[in-house]
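QUALITY CONTROL LOG
STEP: pairwise intake check
CHECKER ROLE: data steward
CRITERIA: each record must contain a sequence immediately followed by its structure tokens, with no blank fields

ENTRY 1 OF 2
RESULT FIELD BELOW
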Amino acid sequence: MRLTSTKLLIPIALVVVGALFWLRPGGVSGPTPEAQPVAGKGFDHSPFSAVLSAVVDETGHVNYSALRKTPGPLDAYLGMLRAVSPANSPHRFRSNDARLAYYLNAYNAFILAAVRDHCPIQNIQEAYFGGGFFWRISFLMGGKEITLSTLESERIRSVMQRNPAVRLALVKAAISSPKLGRVAFQEESLTKQLNDMAKAAVGNPLIVKRVGDELHLNAIFQWYEAEFGDPINWIGGLAPELVEGHKSKKYVPYDWSLNGDCGQ
């Protein structure tokens, strides 16, 4: 009887080990573009602005099908990210804003590339269960592999200085995400860009919506309570008329439907 039990445990253990290996963080390889040389002393994000202006419309809708048809410009920018980062080239990123702008652009560029490469999908949660899109796919940044979750929780968090607007700059390819901008983040204009994004977010009914005396809030405010604190106070600082006289609030479930066209 004991021998039979031992024989059963061996294949079970192999299945468990195999499953853990298959589900390991970063275990799925993302895009692997050729490293591209980066000219100058800093880091030029204008190639990413060109990509954004070509595939994102004024409503924030993303044309992922266009990215699939013409992958070259995005891949070239990914190649720049692969070659250079604040970690391996700190002399290029001397200010906090320079580092933060790089990480925000990298996050959004990685998302665009991953969705492009997984099309056709209608919801990024379809690709991998348990939010695996964010912790299973590995990307190349400064010669090292990194997942979206690690990029957000370690690199971005370390330089965001508890500014809640940064969380609104991370577009997760979903309908409930804030709108993706058509211009890349830049060191010299980052403060204004984040402020403008925050103002746009509170004017977006998918982020904040007043229904009678109740405020319907995007789940982002709940996820990142450490930065936003009481979201009513934060929203009120930007749009006091929206929260004045409200009696209650509720968090709305996040809609992970894709924020664009991914082909058939």
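ENTRY 2 OF 2
RESULT FIELD BELOW
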Amino acid sequence: MKVTANGIGVSYTLDGPAGAPVVTLSHSLAATSAMWEPQLKALTARWRVLRYDTRGHGGTDAPAGAYTLDQLAEDARQLLAALGVTTTHFVGLSMGGMIGQTLALKAPELFASLVLCDTSSRVPPEARPTWEERIRTAETQGMEPMVEATIGRWFTAPFRDARRDVVDPVRAMIRATPPRGYAGCCHAISQLDLTDRLPAITIPTLVIVGEEDQGTPVAASRAIQERIKGAELVVLKSAAHLSNLEQPEAFTRALTAFLDRVGR
């Protein structure tokens, strides 16, 4: 399904019992809402689950130009408003977690809880050239050069070798990402600088991270957990960046246990 939000067409799906509390799932860079498939069965048993494709990804429009995290957060806010959702549990992984932090600071009244997965609250200035290089590559060569390097960061080597059934569809997601959408979101991520503002977040928060995450390591998750009062931290063994796909059972257990605790 598609709805207009913040001036673009946003692709989304709603699953689970009507009238149940809403859980919103926000995906990583160079992925789509399909990356949440392993969590759907458990979540839709008790919650109404909203998945959406971020600006520049999947079935959502990919306008040209640099995006900002405020813009991506406003996309999510207007999507919720268009669907009549006044309160949600928000679960974001990687870029989705950056959007979640931004929106929680901007519109805390929307949140029943916040789950930040394999994400960061700051991109240091010395890392920005890496993002600039990714933008240049996508704009001049398309997504193909990004595929294997990204897969190498997102999954541990044993998992890559043993679980082609999981990894190959992710390769396809990366390859299919519109280059201008990828570049637009890279611009947004490269400007991330929320660490000092995180103490203003007072909603119930869970932080989940793969123990072997290279891109947003455990230290980045600890920095978030330490600054949000009462935040919980779960570190998943034998998982890299896409921990919800590499350790789906452990990830889903941590997520649903938290949602149960904070109230349906």
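INTAKE CHECK: passed for both entries
DESCRIPTIVE NOTE, ENTRY 2: The domain at 2-262 is CATH 3.40.50.1820 (Rossmann fold).
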